[in-house]
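Why do we bother with holo predictions? Because pocket geometry can differ from the apo form. Keep that in mind while you read this record for FE2/S2 (inorganic) cluster.
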Amino acid sequence: MTEDAWVPLALSSMIEVGTSAGAVVQGQEIVVWRDSSGVAHTWEDRCPHRGMKMSFGFVRGDHIACLYHGWEYDQAGQCRYIPAHPQLEVPKTICVKTWAVAEAAGMIWVALGAVPPPPAEAEVTALRSLYLDAPLAAVLAALPEGFGGTLAGQVPLVTLDTDLGTLRIGVQPIDARRTALHLTVAGPATPDTLLALATRSDAFRLSLETAGAAA
Amino acid sequence: MTAPILYNYDLDENCYRVRLVASCLGVALTLHGIDMYPGREHLGAAMRALNPAGRLPVLQDGDLLLTQTEAILMHLAEAHAPTTPLLPQDAATRARMMDWLAFCARDLGVAAQARTCAMLDAPGDAQALRASARACLRLMEDHMVKQGIRGCGFFAGPAATLADLALFPAFALSRDFNVDHDEFPALRLWARRVRRLPGFITMPGIPDYH
Ligand code: FES
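The structure, written out:
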């Protein structure tokens, strides 16, 4: 399902300008980072030099630098600077694999295969990302009762109608055992509503994982 | 006034907590290096005379001898920087700070154990320690999600306290015991705020980005 689809990796608000983070989609390790002009990037999470995770590195202006030996890459993934050889014109062949990225409806999305039309825009309020030790199918099956609401829509974007409002949930299958849900609320939401939903999300994770451990 | 003496090992995360807080408070320490690994000097007779439990950190401040990290942090602030904003004056914020300092002392010890077990071959069940440490980080993440909704950037309120500095090392060092930061977006943003506090310093294993 992720072959030719947009997959959400993070809530937009959680990747601030000048920061990076790691994310995994069906075993594929991805670095998501935001450059100084606010543009998000989704690349393979591997430095071409010695394979260090780029997500351990740090953003410097419009470059991201590897933590290990400081090689710096520009927004296209091209290596631009090697601290051990500051005078060197870096060969064009040294570049990180990049994937298409989109930002819509409060989330950052990656396309690992052919690039589909952009994900739909929506007015949302970010709630949280929830990381679950449970496979995708188990998470979806548990949502209506575990969280309380009516589930609709298709992975990677489902909606859950609850008594506290409609959740728009970006679904990120991490691997066979783990799933991330990027939770947003459709439209505006008060802090009290968001706090109640956050508390419910803690409880949902606990019940889901406890049930999984007992199974 | 002579500077308090910290019996210190650079790679020990509790010693780092003390150095970090002292630096953010602007309090000078005299560091007395202890060869914990491989020398095991903290278990020798001289150090046992100071702390029979055979643990670091140990702080000697005049006649006062302290051996518990959180007590050392409180003492440095109260005795040497009483007007610091890191020590909130209102009762509720201070109580929340104490709550998280106690979490640090009581629950988060598993993170330090997971790390020494993974890195220094200290005894312990690496998998179980890792799982317990991850559970602690999840509690911290859940709390910071809610703090974010309340418009508060730190554990006890809108401003940093000793609790944030005490909690920071466990998250910053979690990759040492194979818990990545992927799952903790709220803690990532919080850690970035902590890094920007005046006086912030790192330790080996915590990269200095600037
Ligand atoms: S591994 Fe990235 S610079 Fe060496």
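The mean pLDDT of chain A is 96.
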